[in-house]
Amino acid sequence: MDVTNLMSLVGIFILVIALFIFILRRVSYALIVRHRKYRWAINYYSVLLVFFPFSATLYAWRSYAWLCLRDFERTLDDCARAIKRNDKMAIVYNYQATAYMGLYKFLDAYWAAQRAIQLNNILWAAYSNRACALQGLKDYGSAIKDFDLCIQQQPGTSGLYYGRANCYLRLQQYERAVQDYGSCIKLNANAWNAYHNRAYAYIGINDVEHGYADICKSCELHPSGLIHRLTKAWFELCLDPRLTPERVEDFAALSALETPQVSWRYSYQGMLAWMRGEYEQALEQFGLSIESSSFDDESDYFWSGMSLAALGRYEEARKAIDYALQHSLLPFLLKTLTLLQEEHSAFVEQYL
Predict the structure, then answer these.
(1) Residue 184 near residue 201 (C-beta atoms within 8 A)
(2) Which CATH number fits domain 235-352: 3.40.1350, 1.25.40, 1.10.287, 3.50.50?
């Protein structure tokens, strides 16, 4: 075979490989991006991996499909396989960070995002993941810096404003939180989570009218979400601290609503037990909520304090409520203490 024929064969081989890669990418794009057929995509990549078991790219693409299905464990498994074959793929570390966030493993998410940024310092999704991880680790100042960088590059992404607003809310910088939640809502008018959290920010600046309106809006946009109705009921107890049979009955009817986080279900059961005067049962439910939550929810500590106070265990109650206040419980919500019976008035007067 002369040199000319050899070069022609090499050229044809390269063309075939290029065409194969092009088709592979187009099929992947069609399955995942356009049609969102994630299961089909996973099966497609799995077949290809039988023939190309050393392809880091195929494992990376399959990990993304698993991620879209919120199967975080399988995402991490495929990320590990991709990294074993090529440890320089920044996007794989970013998928890894996203999966760790889904599992509430904030420290692991931070290091995965950090590695992605080291490999590609303009991968803004990795900065966003690092910001979310830092938020989960309660390093709100550092998280805000990462959100700032992302917003500079992607000012039209509503979730970035929402994330930064959550940090401001935790830092009790309520005016800034209100502003960022507003930016999020301008970009996504159906952002019920932004309305929900902005309600707290408004209450933090003593704008009860707008705060109550926002929590009502979150109920309207996400009517099946239990957490909005829980918060609305709590606000109403502060605005009008009376436990009528009708109120307790209405609150009991919320049991049919969805609860993606098991801790919210415990919180609901605890509040309902408290309203019914079952304080030991309420205390147990709030304890279960605290144990099952990935975050320190100050509201559960407050309601634990309410239960302890109703049982006359004032020293324990004080510690629980003080802890809640130290972890950003809004003073407005202390008005719920007036629901305690007259015999506990001396305890209530310490806070109101």
Answers:
(1) no
(2) 1.25.40
